[in-house]
Amino acid sequence: MPWIVKRIGVSLLLMWVVATVVFLALHMVPGDPAELLLSTGGAMPDAYAIAELREKLGLNRPLWEQYLGFLEGLSRGDLGNSLVDDYPVADEILLRLPRTLELILAGTIISVIIALPAGTFAAVRAGGAFDRVASSLAALLQAVPVFVLGTLLILLLAQTLRWMPAGGYVPLAQDPVRHLVLLSLPAIAIAKGLTATVFRMTRASVLDALSRDHVRTARAKGLTPQRVLRRHVVRNALIPVTTVLGLQMGTLLGGTVLVEYVFNWPGLSTPLLRAVEGRDYPMVVGIVLTVSGLFLLINLAMDLLYAALDPRISRS
């Protein structure tokens, strides 16, 4: 239990650091945010309008006062309102975040289902035909950018073969079947890099575990190869694989931006791109903090999973 409390405390500290860096970076951007916002479209705002907007945004207060107000709002879950449509940032994120998380979860499930068995089999049959072909495919998948793969999937499966729709979104409650169909292509696109990485790590970890002394001892005792693989190899090999999986799931949060854009999936990418173009700073800050918090939460979950796989970790 003290180990878990320590990890949670470290995660909260890192979240405070991220929030502070984002706040300072926002105020280091060249130019007056109020003037930049009012001058969108080439208009020349007058000094009165700029001063009025600065007062509305709280930019005329001292920096330390703005910082304390920023942290106080975060503690209440208040991310402010969008400067474009005056809509609460938190409400917009809560609406779109589940769609992004669903896409990440679907891509992760696809990757794990494919990569773990394939990596294990490739390690057991190292040097064989399957190992060579699977390793080559993994290298190819890592080399292809996600937006290129997404475009190729649309050209092949949607426009040429007409097996799948090119993109879009339907709520799960409205039409479950069509929702899953629309989810499949972006999930496959986002899973490609994770599948290749998890496959390579699984193969390397299983090969390393197979050469350990305790595995040779288990074989000498007469245990079947399947039992040795299940009890003495896979369990130990999962710890480094879990590390890579946790880190890669965090990076998927950034990779979904291109995938959602290509497949017109209404996740966090749409308000983020719109906020960047329109200089909607509260929306940008809210989404950045949300993604950062999710990244830290995923890493915390991976730490807890390590402890479940190897109880010695929680005692260290």
From TrEMBL:
One of its GO terms (cellular component) is plasma membrane. GO terms for molecular function: dipeptide transmembrane transporter activity. It comes from Falsiroseomonas stagni DSM 19981. The chain crosses the membrane at residues 12-29, 103-124, 136-159, 179-199, 237-263, 283-309. It is a multi-pass membrane protein. This is Peptide/nickel transport system permease protein. Residues 97-306 form the ABC transmembrane type-1 domain. Keywords: Cell membrane, Membrane, Transmembrane, Transmembrane helix, Transport. SUPFAM superfamilies: MetI-like (SSF161098). PROSITE patterns: ABC_TM1. It comes from the Bacteria.
